[in-house]
Specification:
CATH class of chain A: Alpha Beta
Largest interface: A-B, 26 and 26 residues
Largest sheet of chain A: 7 strands, antiparallel
CATH superfamily of chain A: START domain
Number of helices of chain A: 5
Helix content of chain A: 25-40%
Strand order of the largest sheet of chain A: 1-9-8-5-4-3-2
CATH topology of chain A: Alpha-D-Glucose-1,6-Bisphosphate, Chain A, domain 4
Mean pLDDT of chain A: 93
CATH architecture of chain A: 2-Layer Sandwich
Oligomer: homodimer
């Protein structure tokens, strides 16, 4: 088997954001899993989230609509692959609900919430099939977009 | 949303084998989920299966090695996505264990075991990302290979 080579190749196809959030994991996890909370932070303002459906279990739908300042809607739909309540969420656009592969899959997200003295070591990973997809995601503004959204996530979690 | 179009497009990317197997679902399911049993039927003779590791839970590894009559080994590794004991198995080569997307994913398999008067309505679906991949899988001998293996599966399940 070629574990190390695979792992190395995988690294170059991954984008990572990590942050120490000043709220406990349970609250950050709530903000990720309750639709009415997710809608308040998931898109970096002035983008908004008018719709969110989150069926938080393996195979359940993860569906959000992000609205741009000029009113254009961008739907994102996929499924959860793995859920460890309070600790980890894995979801992807590879499948429509019912395990139907889509024609152009893009990414798989892994979000972990670890307790660090009452705060949350928050890590969000976006894994891609190719290096090209990873670069495209960076160019689309992964770091800035997810960074701003994470500011909003932290601000919200502190109020819960 | 474009559900109907998506479903239609998905159909053309799917290969299906269905069969009424003369053994109850519990036995056919055992033959799919116990490595020592799977090794006895999973490759159509004269191909053999010298190795099988089956961690039958979402995210768990599905790993088999198929050996050709002239001794060449073909590894197949992926993960389970969904497991309904006795009823349904979903697994794919899209991910290595740990939710690492591979660079060239090929298929997702959905196998269902339904009771039909003490026999098993057995359905195995192979879903692909593209019509090209589905055609390639057909040309690789999906129907003949899976058909012969299913004969072997039935013969084994009847002895359990």
């Amino acid at each position: 088997m070629t574990e190390p080579a695979t792992a190395l190749a995988a690294e170059t196809r991954e984008l990572v954001l990590t942050r120490l959030i000043d709220a406990p994991p349970a609250k950050v996890y709530r903000a990720w899993t309750e639709p009415e909370l997710l809608k308040q932070w998931f898109a970096p303002l002035p983008y908004t989230v008018p719709f969110a459906e989150l069926d938080v279990r393996p195979g359940g739908v993860f569906h959000t609509v992000i609205r741009s300042p000029d009113g254009a809607d961008f739907g994102g739909r996929g499924v959860y692959l793995d859920v460890v309540p309070g600790e980890k969420l894995v979801f992807t656009d590879v499948y429509e609900p019912g395990w139907h592969p889509v024609e152009k899959p893009f990414m798989t997200a892994i979000v972990t919430f670890e307790d660090e003295g009452g705060k949350t070591r928050y890590t969000a990973r976006a894994r891609h099939f190719t290096v090209e997809d990873r670069l495209r995601h960076e160019e689309m503004g992964f770091h800035e977009g997810w960074g701003k959204a994470t500011d909003q996530l932290e601000a919200l979690a502190k109020t819960l």
